[in-house]
Amino acid sequence: xxxxxxxxxxxxxxxxxxxxxxxxxxxxxxxxxxxxxxxxxxxxxxxxxxxxxxxxxxxxxxxxxxxxxxxxxxxxxxxxxxxxxxxxxxxxxxxxxxxxxxxxxxxxxxxxxxxxxxxxxxxxxxxxxxxxxxxxxxxxxxxxxxxxxxxxxxxxxxxxxxxxxxxxxxxxxxxxxxxxxxxxxxxxxxxxxxxxxxxxxxxxxxxxxxxxxxxxxxxxxxxxxxxxxxxxxxxxxxxxxxxxxxxxxxxxxxxxxxxxxxxxxxxxxxxxxxxxxxxxxxxxxxxxxxxxxxxxxxxxxxxxxxxxxxxxxxxxxxxxxxxxxxxxxxxxxxxxxx
Length: 338
What we know:
It is a single chain. Helix content is 63%, strand content 8%. Residues 85-89 have low confidence and may be disordered. A 5-stranded parallel beta sheet has the order 3-2-1-4-5, with helices on both faces. Strand 1 (170-174), helix 6 (185-200) and strand 2 (206-210) form a beta-alpha-beta unit. By secondary structure, the protein is α/β, with parallel strands linked by helices.
């Protein structure tokens, strides 16, 4: 039985890894559809290989592999929080949430170990805590995979397959909070990535700068971006402002409306430029809307990246709520049948 489980674990990990890599190579249309299932297969294989599923299964905190995953994810959460505690209240609140998430994961693992050998605890209670600990392991694994995948996507698709023979007619730059009337560093990085793509395709294509006005902002995100592009030699008639959106989904919906107006209702081909930590969710939303699009992942400074990735991972998690049910099903099958 042990050899069979090890073979199954290896097959699942190999299949998951191959499908995940293929989804990246296939680009924006395939990645959001294939990557979640690939990640589940990879996680199931890791679970079998690390001994947290199958006969005499360990609680996650009793497996060295699981402990390494949980420890790495918790360290990332705490590091991200450390970059936000001295910032504004909104960022400090996100930092507190990151520390709280790490604490919950650790507490669940400790509780699962404590209840595993306790004789006076109902079996149902012990199994429930073990399930919660397993779900926490999944969230930790997913966080690490999300970080690695974001970095990989940036490396593989920073150019968005620029082709001077088939240039992108529309370059949609997703907004972020400006610094006064000028782009913040994170927004400037997105604009620089868009400018680089525009140059690579022979200075063809129209920029759509997308972002509204947030609380306390001097100007809209779109206005700050337009000024930045004009200062760098982009013609005024090549920059269109979309200044109503306040979310990533609205960026896409309102920018599509601008394109439809410019092209008399004909569908357009988009390059969507955003930060690396937001690339996957942007691609998923573009696929849901049926856009013909590629996502360009702009680089992010380390401090900003640490503050942002956990929040973005939470947003991605909300885009795929069924994943938690699938993970619970994996645990149930492992508990009952293996």
